[in-house]
Specification:
Layout: E1 2-5, H1 14-19, E2 23-26, H2 37-46, E3 50-53, H3 56-64, E4 72-74, H4 81-100, E5 108-112, E6 118-122
Parallel strand pairs: 1-2, 1-3, 3-4, 4-5
Antiparallel strand pairs: 5-6
Amino acid sequence: MRLLLDENVSPANVRPLTETGHDVYHVRDRGLTGQPDHVIWRRAIDESRVLVTINARDFVRLAEREELHGGLITFPSGSTPAEQLALIRLAIAQFELDQEEGRDRMNRWLDIRDDGEVRVTDLPTKMT
């Protein structure tokens, strides 16, 4: 899976994710530290990456305006790097399970709650 870790996610998580076969980089590795959210979001879209962040509010707003994006993973703040890694792996497992069931990660938001529940939402919301 192709991931972009926001600056509020520990860069220490790049290596273990890369070692398990994922294409991952942190915003600091691409000179994006301190850049506005819309710049980071655009990079994720342009590279078809899932953005991983604790900043759900701002990135959900951006995702709602986008016709097509690579996906979004959010989780609560205050997690240690090891806890973040576990949450990212949980989200990846959810994406992989969804893929086995015929759904891809495009336009999907996986929000991991404080209690570990994974909420999956289509963004932008599908019109019926």
